[in-house]
Amino acid sequence: MLGSDSKQDDVAEKDDQKLISNLAKKMNSYQTVSISYRIYRRKRNYHSSENPDHQSKTPYLVSIGPYNHGNSNLRYMRSMKLKCLKFLTKNSWSRFPTLLQDFNAIDRDARRFYGEAEASEIKTKMKGKKFTNILILDGFFIICYMLSKLDQKVTEDNPFSGCEKMWMTNLINQDLLFTDNQIPFKVIKIIWKWLDSSNLYEDLIEVMYKCFMVGYSPISNAKKETANSKDIHHILDLYHHFIMHEDGPKPSDKQMDSPSMIHIDIPNENHDDTERDYTYYFDSIKPIPTATELEMIGMKFKLRKQGECSSPLDVKFDKKQGILEIPMIQMTHSWKAVLQNVIDFEELTDGVGTHAIGYVYLMFCLVKNVEDVRILCRKGIIQNKIGTEDDMAKFFIDLWRKSNGFITIFPRKYLFDDINAYHQSILNFWMTSLINAFKNNPLIFVSVIGAIIFFSSELIQFIHTLKSLFKGKP
User: Fold this and answer.
1) Rg (alpha carbons) of the chain, rounded to whole number
2) How far apart are CA 472 and CA 362, in angstroms?
3) Residue 68 included in any domain
4) Would you say residue 225 lies in a domain?
5) Sheet holding 300-304: strands in order across?
6) Are 26 and 42 contained in the same domain?
7) pLDDT tens, 46-77?
8) Is the pTM of this model over 0.70?
9) How sure is the predictor about 190, in pLDDT bands with cuts at 50, 70 and 90?
10) Is 283 helix (H, G, I), strand (E, B) or coil?
């Protein structure tokens, strides 16, 4: 028995040493990658048509990067990518070897962007020059598509030019903003520089802005300079930079590192407050009333025109006039998918703030039922392309419940404060209630005027009586 126990102990000791050796080997070979630089891959169940999030997670038309490469549902754009390569290199193909040298220089860094690169099926796609081939074709495709959206003579023979390609625009725009459908932005910059585009086209950031922010006010110099100077990770990161708010307090380094600066409660029956008790949050956002409740106390809603705002999130409240201006909300599956992926990006990436999550929470508070939807529809703020009024009422409810429920850095917190302050004003409430009563029942107005006249006459008679009494005294 003793000999048997001794052998078992030896085997267990060898297994422990083997485990320690394997762990040490993996730790030494592991290359640390900043979480901010990851291009995340969605789990397989996200791409199942049975999953309710399927439409917001899976590209419709084009694959970008290795994660969705080879998807049989996205084959249509494969030939288009080759056409784009041919179009952009027709006068510079002889210089192509120099471009390959530039790609070789960033190959190692580019591979580090993909957090799931060790998965067997992805590893095969990224083997050797297969990965370079994907980056080249996708990079040229993106630039060719961007140039096709510029009103310039150079786009006349672009593969995307022509009315027959117009139907692609919304789908491609959406696909380029999917979390796992990205390539490092450095790839696009290298191709742009190699094409000597600065002599033919506008600044790359300006071209990207015009592509994704059609109709909105021109990009500010400050935002453009920041985009050119900062290390943009990929197109989704750049789009987030375009739509983020520039006003409000700037986060300090300490705030950027804290797990949650502004705590708000999720309206979820499974929510457990003890799981969200962070030390570093500095304030809480008080939910604003619904559109119906705000209209009852006299608040007005107004469509904010695209040319007057910097992004679809650019909500403005005039607290003196009581007017809430909201950019048009195109309730489509496409816009919902874009918002979902921007929210995913904010949740997965450190230090970018939660501008989209804050906007979704604002709209979640505002639009909760059919009556709220009808108010905003009457003002032209909501454009219905998603279904019934019930579907519209659930638009922001669905988005909010899929988020993690925390706002870290939201410069426009003052919107909540100002709207709540206006709602709590007793003067606004009673004055508006009186006006609404007059509008709904004109007889009340006549009665009030009659009461005022009667009271005035009685007061005058009382004053005259007092005067006569005083005059009668010796």
Assistant:
1) 30
2) 70
3) yes
4) yes
5) 300-304, 323-327, 316-318
6) no
7) 444 444 555 556 888 999 999 888 888 888 88
8) yes
9) very high
10) strand
